[in-house]
Amino acid sequence: MNILLQRCRTLISQLRKNYQIKDAKDLLNETVLFLNNSIQNQTDGLHVLSIICHDLAGLYNLPFFNNSEIMNHQFFIIVSNTFMMLLTKLTFIRLTKQDIQCFDDISLLICNLCLNRNIISSNFYIDNNEKLNPNNKEKFNVTSYEKIFFTKSFVEKFVRIIDNDIAINYYEPYHIKYRIIDRLLRLCIKLKDIDHKLILDAVMKCLESKIYKKLYTTIDLRQPILTPQQSFFMYQCPKFIRLCSDKRQNDISQKLSEPLINLSSDIFANQLPVIYEEHARIQAISWYIELLNHFALTPSTRVQFIKRIDFGKTIVDQMIEILQTESLIKSVREHAESFHTDVALMSYAITLLYNLTFENKIFWDLKTKNVIATCKKLFNAKDKTIQFASRTLDAILNQKEINEIDSPSVVARSYLYFIENTIDDITLTYHGIKLDGILTNLETIVHNDDIKEEITNDGEGIPLIARCAYESNFDIETIQRPALEIISAISFANDSAIEQIKENDILMDHIKKLSDRNDKDQEITANRILWKVEQETEFILNQKVEKKRRQTIIKKKFKEEEAIYQYVRGDYHIEINDDYLPGKFDVMLSYCHSDKEICSKIYTHLNAEDFGQVLFHERDIDTIHPRYMAKAIECSSIVIICFSNKYEQSYACRLEAEYAKKRQRTIIAVKLEPGYDAKGWLEDIIDTTYIDFTKSEFTSACTQLIKKIYETNEENNNI
After folding, report:
1. What DSSP letter does each residue of 383-435 carry, written as one string?
2. Average pLDDT over residues 693-703
3. Partners of residue 310 on adjacent β-strands
4. What is the DSSP string of 433-490?
5. Quick one: pLDDT at residue 118?
6. Residues 6+ apart with CB under 8 A from 89
7. What are the pLDDT digits (tens) for 483-520?
8. Start and end of every TIR domain (predicted)?
9. Are 41 and 24 a contacting pair, CB within 8 Å?
10. Mean pLDDT over residues 6-10, rounded?
């Protein structure tokens, strides 16, 4: 045995310096020969196998492990069978010292190979032969270390150990069971071909166990390292749920959220005072909050977080308390590493609040608390997740100040960063932030014109959001629709935005298809984008052509018998149509549908006057095709803009107001909302003087408006 080990170590030393496939084969052949001849002496066999596996585990980065002959070598069959035997033995009887050592070394080799050398090996000639493999897709005789070691029977046995033993029985913290199971579960998280569904229920059982609760209520956050028991229950099990349960996320969140949220009372009562100590290791609390955040991604479970758990406090209150800790705020301004304990804790805490705002009750609860002031303190955090969540919370909780967002360039880049990192992820999630939530909030924040411009100026901004709008694998309601609304908003930014949208052929094809569909919401948005990008310019050009045509017709109707010279002023008159009434003119009311009640009353008063036609659209302007809106403005000489915060936020109203300005219609502004002043784009359109319906009695304000209309019309006639 000693001679073999010395020989093997010589070969391993040669492999380290200058690896050769032949040397690797010799090593494995000699080991297999010895193991086959030592069946009667299992201790020696396990000892040799343990040493060889330990040494090979350190060579996992060498390419010879990818050789198909090496991968199919009998040595790895022996390793797999031995590992299965030890796993079975682990369940029923006490392991010897040699068993434990061999088990540990084999598991280390398996993990290193599956993580770093898990390349599928197949037959090159079959793969590239059109007759044997016509689609060049199906692989023959494929093998990988995952397939060698993680057979269905192995996974089933692994699950039984977790389900029937680990989740139920309490062992000393450094027991070999925890060390091996922790290592294997960590590996299972990273393997792609393994059936994670087989493992999920067993892992859920661990999180529901008394052991999980006991560990959190007894852990000393000052201890330098976690035990294998703590690592398995507090880190690997939650991580497995977060990363491997996407197809069952709703079901698992429903089952686990209530019992684990109920644990928060004991956990925070025991551990929150400790986390404020400078040298406390707070990963354990961070992992718990990270798991809660995973549950908060499921809409139906968010209501669970409203429950009061400790002295009348909710989990939301506990998160705010963490975020308001000055020492932690100072720390995240100095450190950017996501693995830094303070950064992780603050990141998970504010991400949890961010995700809970999608529950209306919690959103309004947060608006009443001093959360905005806390968020502003975190603007200068170095971690991108903290920056994103804090700035988003500040914006959405203070929507009336959306035009005054602090550092819009930082906010825009932050949103694009998270879209880029979620859009291709299988779970559409990055650092606890989901793509649908990003788009929902961006749909609000993009009302800020600086945000529109920053996205436009970023070369990847519009293409990224466009992908969300047109890629068919995304959910229509939660991803495609808000993305299309954002594209619509960005089209108001500048000419560059319009050109970028217009030049994106896939996006434009998608928008044109939507405009022809019977899809109420997306059809309206698509029509607005098409109008802004293509149709408006063409429509205005046609109006100018039509105006010239009419002027030509009028000139042809001049009667020349009353004057020698046509150019003498006053020597001709125009033949008017029967429906033209001298001294009368058209007035149009532009308003947001939410203000319809008061605008309808204004319309009634105006209609009683001796005007021409007063245009008042009964339908919600958001549902009207832009072409009809433009025709109405073309027929009007005066446009009355009834403005409010809702008017400013409506892109249909903006389209209407900007078109009136572009076509040089006279604009009279009417203020409808107390305490609101026009901002941004609206401020550029309306005059600084306006009729204020919020300060005058309604009839009196209408009288002022009517007087203003007559004065304006008289001024227009004198021009």
Report:
1. SHHHHHHHHHHHHHTTGGGGGG-SSHHHHHHHHHHHHHHHTTSTTSEETTEEH
2. 91
3. 313
4. EEHHHHHHHHHHHTTSHHHHHHHHHSTTHHHHHHHHHH-TTS-IIIIIHHHHHHHHHH
5. 58
6. 95, 99
7. 999 999 999 999 999 999 999 999 999 999 998 876 66
8. 583-713
9. no
10. 68
